[in-house]
Amino acid sequence: MTDIQRLSTLDADFQPRLAALLAWDSVSDDLVQQTVAEIIRAIRARGDAALLDYTARFDRWTPATATELELPRARLAQAWQTIPTDQREALELAVARIRAYAEHQKLESWSYREPDGTLLGQQVTPLDRAGLYVPGGKAAYPSSVLMNAIPAKVAGVGELIMVVPTPDGELNELVLAAAHIAGVDRAFAIGGAQAVAALAYGTETIPGVDKIVGPGNIYVATAKRAVYGQVGIDMIAGPSEILVVCDGATDPDWIAMDLFSQAEHDEDAQSILLSWDGGFLERVAASIERLLPTMERRTIIAAALGARGALIQVRDLDDAITVANVIAPEHLELSVADPEAIVGRIRHAGAIFMGRYTAEALGDYCAGPNHVLPTSRTARFSSPLGVYDFQKRSSLIMASRAGAAELSRTASVLARGEGLTAHARSADYRGEAS
Amino acid sequence: MTDIQRLSTLDADFQPRLAALLAWDSVSDDLVQQTVAEIIRAIRARGDAALLDYTARFDRWTPATATELELPRARLAQAWQTIPTDQREALELAVARIRAYAEHQKLESWSYREPDGTLLGQQVTPLDRAGLYVPGGKAAYPSSVLMNAIPAKVAGVGELIMVVPTPDGELNELVLAAAHIAGVDRAFAIGGAQAVAALAYGTETIPGVDKIVGPGNIYVATAKRAVYGQVGIDMIAGPSEILVVCDGATDPDWIAMDLFSQAEHDEDAQSILLSWDGGFLERVAASIERLLPTMERRTIIAAALGARGALIQVRDLDDAITVANVIAPEHLELSVADPEAIVGRIRHAGAIFMGRYTAEALGDYCAGPNHVLPTSRTARFSSPLGVYDFQKRSSLIMASRAGAAELSRTASVLARGEGLTAHARSADYRGEAS
């Protein structure tokens, strides 16, 4: 029997119960913070030597020299050649679709001229160098390599550096194959906070980058937060979440499996179903009971559904949309007859899967959009990872002589109002000369 | 005699000297961190009561109730009516230009359909609510209100909440007037880490927001970093910087004043001049000597130029561009004959001021582009504040029946490769039904 919570928006205590369900505190404890701070200090002070020490200690692997930390491109190509054909074809199709979608996201420079000849605009440029963190061990996902690497390459990043730990020297062939096909330029067999620090500050062997992206454990996440400012980072991801809104006409087994697909990630993952059809909620609950014992990862699924899952009865469609906007989910499935009629009312969601045929799993792997998405209600203010995360803008201003005369008067008045007279005089010089 | 450093790219120790010049560590000390953490805890636990306590303690002002913390819209309108006419006209012109430029930045939703009917795209939405921090006291800049508020309003943010501390009850009329004309929806007379915490978590009186923008002192910056994740933040700004690249044909007094305009902000501000004309560097040095005694803020300017300023001799234009890209400055002036011929080679800069007539001060106030810019070499990976900072994207995926059949096969193979069989079965259901 799965103990999935039942809520109803009609309950008097619905708001606090929903808040409790969604609560997630991403703050690392002091011990993790201190460990990470020490690792970063060591990498900055001792470079490669510290990196080798930590690799021996945490990954139980002792390369003779730092150059052995690099995984040569030929090694990635070899992995690509040796994986099974069906996986190679699946990766190829995924790459093509992810790239085609990413091309639509590319920001372009723009500018305009005013009547007096003054030019204004923004120049868009790619990052020089980006770092991609890929977890080792059980959470090594080739799809994650594609989703992080392809937008960087489409943006035109000069050099893309992947790091992936090899605990006990173990390498994941699918991850290496994905790195090959996604266009990773260099790869290093390092991980943990030490890899993040090496990418942020550079060592004799590891090139320093401008931005670090990719998922990782609490040490990696804490290290990313700590080096933010020295380099850019993508986001600090919380546990994965799915919210399904269903009108009751989708096969309940499909919806149960969609909830499972999120819950199987880890025990903290969150799966929530909203429906105004109370009978449907019961049918999904029955499907959960029946299907759960057949799942390979049933222990994790049961733990996640029990701790953070919920079936929520809402009054009607409007009520469902209101609750969905409060939850601001990472993944939102609109499993309804006419999703296009309501998608415009969704104000906050990382990705919206529209219609009964659009399982989240399709988007996780190969539909095209990125699977790196804002979690823990951060869709209220942030976006999926995209090409735009590997580009940045520089404002362009070129005042004509006449434009400078006009602008200098206004700038001078405002600068004097703020007591900044060097600003005012700098503007005045241009006005007087015009 | 101003002790501004002289460097040359021909010097053997140029690289380490440049690195030392640019070094800036933004990390707050432990005492600041602890104080801020305590303030955030108190605001979360006690809401308005804690906010009133801190306001009494730090701003030496004791409102009878929390509702008195609000500055009514009529109070902002009154400020607008009572400021001098020339300032009102200057603010009006600045608002019109900043808004016109911002309109060019607005992101639009997009989507496309594939031959089998599958729809892919991104839906762009504004933030529901944004918070704008405005410093009190000497650093209260009306221009900063305009630069932060206008992009939010152009983005369509539902409600824009401004906070501004009133130390000893003192209000800056220009700041209130700027808030009025920029369209601030509600304003509260609170500041410091307590205001940031109130905006991030909400209190009985202060509405919780989705993102906090705007400059502040070390307590405000530390609080913003601490609440990042609960809400979005703009950036953690370091000291302001200018890099001028000059071919030697601009009036040296103009360039000296441009360097002053940055240095007058505070003692940590950075002003650097690059030229391949050694005689010109001497002429600018002479202008600095002659003009400095005439400046109202000469003490601050002298301190900043002495501590972090530099005149750098480079070999030629190419060398100047290389060094500029290493510095990745917040503000870059290309004071040369043909800036359009070289601007495409600038890879990293917050804003680029092109030509002899485009003093940075014009851009600081009214040219149109935002003056909130990435500092401390973060232009390598980040962008000026813009409308896009108040919008976010949701991915859209709607698989047709045929599309689901195609995608489900690929998703299933990749999911099984990652050992995620619930993902695979969720995809399989859609494939089987198609």
UniProtKB/TrEMBL annotation, chains A, B:
Reaction(s) catalysed (UniProt annotation): L-histidinol + 2 NAD(+) + H2O = L-histidine + 2 NADH + 3 H(+)
Residues where substrate binds: S240, Q262, H265, H331, D364, E418, H423
Metabolic or biological pathway: Amino-acid biosynthesis; L-histidine biosynthesis; L-histidine from 5-phospho-alpha-D-ribose 1-diphosphate: step 9/9
Enzyme Commission designation: 1.1.1.23
Catalytic residues, chain numbering: E330 (proton acceptor), H331 (proton acceptor)
Function: Catalyzes the sequential NAD-dependent oxidations of L-histidinol to L-histidinaldehyde and then to L-histidine.
Protein's UniProt name: Histidinol dehydrogenase
Gene: hisD
